């Protein structure tokens, strides 16, 4: 269940209400069920996945990718697997935990673990959204945001691309005022 934290500390957990709060930024968030397939569930329970296992996971949920290809022109997808055992995880995450934008939409489907996306609203206030398994988020191009892992430091997320070049972060230099403390 997604959790939206406003800068004043208010928490929202109803997906419809969260979607309404994020609507001015045109951010889409939805619940998409992960197939109840024992082999898929076994793969999702593992910390690490090799390239073949990642491809098995992607193929098991490709119906969503096929929809995005037809409706929005998405051309590729990959599976990001992040966990505490990854060497240099902190350095890898550092490029996303500053406020930035992208030239392309950032589309992720969280299938295991959880992560936090922060956003700068049109009035300059900030919110953070904890995205959980079976939640899909589409952050439009040009939206000021940041991304980091929750204290569990584990996430499997499918990323959908029109072009991968569009995901290069463009840092805004704006300071993050709302942030849960990192636990390492």
Describe the structure.
The chain contains five helices and twelve strands. It is of the alpha+beta class and 184 residues long. The chain has one domain: Jelly Rolls (Sandwich), CATH 2.60.120.10. It is globular and about 45 Å long. The model has no long low-confidence stretch (mean pLDDT 92).
Report the uncertain regions: none
- As for the CATH topology, it is Jelly Rolls
The spatial strand order of the largest sheet comes to: 2-1-8-7-10
**In terms of structural class, how would the helical and strand content be classed?**
alpha+beta
Query: What is the approximate shape?
Result: globular
What Rg is obtained from the alpha carbons, in whole angstroms?
16 Å
Q: Please, what is the average pLDDT?
A: 92
Strand content: 25-35%
CATH superfamily: Jelly Rolls
Helical residues, percent: 10-25%
**Whole-number total of structural domains:** 1
CATH C-level: Mainly Beta
Q: How many strand units?
A: 12
Secondary structure tally, helices = 5
Query: What is the annotated CATH architecture?
Result: Sandwich
Gap from first CA to last CA: 23 Å
Q: How many strands, what sense, and barrel or not for the largest sheet?
A: 5 strands, antiparallel
Question: Secondary-structure blueprint of this entry?
Answer:
Elements: E1 3-6, E2 11-12, H1 15-22, E3 28-31, H2 38-45, H3 51-60, H4 62-72, E4 76-82, H5 89-94, E5 100-101, E6 106-113, E7 115-120, E8 126-131, E9 135-139, E10 145-149, E11 155-161, E12 170-171
Antiparallel strand pairs: 1-2, 1-8, 3-9, 4-11, 5-12, 6-9, 6-11, 7-8, 7-10
């Amino acid at each position: 269940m997604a959790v939206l934290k406003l800068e004043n500390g208010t928490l929202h957990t109803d997906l419809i209400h969260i979607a309404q709060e994020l609507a001015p930024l045109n951010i889409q968030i939805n619940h998409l069920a992960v197939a109840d397939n024992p082999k898929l569930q076994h793969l999702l329970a593992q910390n690490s996945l090799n390239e073949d296992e990642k491809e098995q996971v992607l193929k098991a949920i490709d119906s969503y990718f096929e929809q995005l290809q037809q409706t929005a022109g998405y051309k590729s997808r990959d599976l990001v697997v992040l966990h505490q055992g990854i060497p240099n995880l902190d350095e890898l995450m550092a490029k996303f935990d500053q406020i930035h934008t992208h030239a392309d939409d950032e589309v992720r489907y969280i299938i295991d673990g959880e992560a936090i996306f922060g956003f700068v609203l049109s009035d300059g206030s900030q919110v953070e959204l904890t995205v959980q398994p079976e939640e899909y988020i589409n952050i439009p191009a040009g939206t000021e945001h940041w991304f980091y892992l929750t204290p569990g430091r584990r996430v499997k997320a499918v990323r959908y691309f029109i072009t991968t070049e569009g995901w290069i972060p463009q840092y805004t230099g704006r300071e993050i005022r709302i942030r849960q403390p990192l636990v390492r």
